[in-house]
Amino acid sequence: MATGNVRYARYILFAIFGIIVIYLISTSSLPTYTEPLRDSAGKYLGNLKGAHEETVTTTDASGDVITQITTGLAAEPTSPNPQYGTHGDLTSSGPSEKMNATFVTLARNTDLWEIARSIRQVEDRFNRNYHYDWVFLNDKPFDETFKKVTSSLVSGKTHYGEIKEEHWSFPSWIDQDKARKVREDMAQRKIIYGDSISYRHMCRFESGFFFRQPLMMNYEWYWRVEPSVELFCDVNYDPFKFMRDNKKKYSFVISLYEYVETIPTLWDSVKKFMKNHPEHIAKDNSLALISDDGGDTYNKCHFWSNFEIGNLEWLRSKQYVDFFEALDKDGGFFYERWGDAPVHSIGASLLLDKSEIHFFNDIAYYHVPFTHCPTGEETRLKLKCHCDPKNNFDWKGYSCTSRFFDLNKLEKPAGWEKEQ
Ligand SMILES: Nc1nc2c(ncn2[C@@H]2O[C@H](COP(=O)(O)OP(=O)(O)OP(=O)(O)O)[C@@H](O)[C@H]2O)c(=O)[nH]1
Ligand SMILES: *[C@@H]1O[C@H](CO)[C@@H](O)[C@H](O)[C@H]1NC(C)=O
Ligand SMILES: [Mg+2]
C-alpha cells in the first residue's frame, strides 16, 4: 500500500514537472507586442500592458503553485546592457509628463525616402518611447504615398500642412529683375543654390513662417528634422522637458562660419534693426559670440538650423517677428541668398539671454557634411553611440562651438583638446 502511494505521488510529480517545462518553453519565446492604445482621435493612451510583461509559474517545495509576474520597463533598451541608459529619466518622465511639442519637417514628395530614413532613426533613438507628433509642411499637397509611409513610421500623430502662397513667394516689394540678375550672377560664380528660387523661398519660410503655420500653432515646442540626417546615440530623456526645466529657448548641436557670399549685407540690416529696436535686444545677449568687434561686423558664426529644438512662443514673439520683418523688408532673401541658419542664430544671439541657448552634447547628429559625435567615451558608451569620434566637428577650426563654451564660461568635455 505504502509503496503504491509513493509511486503514485512520484507519478503526479513527474506530470506536474512535465507541464511546467512545456509551459516555460511556451512562455519564454519572444515577448508579446502590444499595440499602443489610442482613443478615437488617435491620441496615445499608453500600452495595454507593460511592453515586456512575463508571467512565470512554478511550484514550491510542497507542490503549491506560485505565480510570479515580472513586469519589465515600459521602454526597453535597444540592446541588453541595462546597467546604462534607459532607466532614470525615462521612468520618471513617462507619457504622463508629455510636453506640448512636435517634430516638424519641411519636405517635398520626392524627399520621401530620405525623410523616412531620418524618421526611423529619430523613432529608434528617442520617439518610440515618447510618441510625439510630427508635422509635415510642403508648398504643394503631400501625396498619398508620402502620407502613408510617414504615418506608418511615426509613433505619434502625423499632420500634413500645405503652405499658403504668401509664405512661399516673392513679396510685393521685391524687384523681380534685380533678383533674377543676382541669381544669374551667383550661378556664374558657382555659389551653392545661388541660382535657385525655391531654395530662397525655403530659407525665407524657415526664417519667418514655419512657426506660425496653422498646424504649428497647436504646439509650444518643436524639433526640426531634415531628410537624410542621422542620430547616433540614444536620447534617454525628454529634451523638450529639459529645455523647459532649464529655461532654454533655442538649441544646437553644430555651429560653423557662414559662406560670406550668401550674406554680404545681412549685418547691415541687423545693425539697422538693433538701432531701431533697442528695446528688443536682450540684456545678457550673445552679441560677443557673433561679433568680434562689439557689433561693428559679423564674424559669420551661426548655429546649423537643420537641427533645432526650440520654443515656438519665442519665434512667435513680437521681438522675433519684428526682427524677421525688418530683414525681410530689406530683401536679402532674394537679392542675396540669406539662409535661415544665420537668421535664427543672429535672432537667438541678440533677442535671448545667453543662458537661454543650449548646446546638446549628448544628441549625436549628422547632416552632410558635418558630424557632431559627443566628446567623452563614457557618454558615447552609455548612450550606445555608433558615430566615429574622429569625425566630431565641435572642436575643429571651422566650428564656433568653442567660442560658445568660452562665452558662456562652460567647461569643455574632457578630451576635447585631442579632437581639435
Ligand atoms: N516643400 C519643399 N521643401 C523644400 C524645398 N526645398 C527644400 N526643402 C526642404 O527644406 C529643408 C532644407 O532643404 P535642403 O535641400 O536640405 O537644404 P540644405 O540642408 O541647405 O542643403 P542639403 O545639403 O542639400 O541638405 C529640407 O527639409 C528640404 O526637404 C522645396 O522646394 N519645397
Ligand atoms: C499647446 O500650445 C499651444 C500654443 O501655445 C496652445 O494653444 C495649446 O492650448 C497648448 N496645448 C496644451 C494641451 O496645453
Ligand atoms: Mg538639408
From TrEMBL:
InterPro entries: Glyco_trans_15 (IPR002685), Nucleotide-diphossugar_trans (IPR029044). Residues 81-95 have a biased composition (Polar residues). One of its GO terms (molecular function) is alpha-1,2-mannosyltransferase activity. Residues 75-96 are annotated as: Disordered. Belongs to the glycosyltransferase 15 family. GO terms for cellular component: Golgi apparatus; membrane. This is Alpha 1,2-mannosyltransferase 2.4.1. It comes from Knufia fluminis. Keywords: Glycosyltransferase, Membrane, Transferase, Transmembrane, Transmembrane helix. One of its GO terms (biological process) is protein N-linked glycosylation. The chain crosses the membrane at residues 12-30.
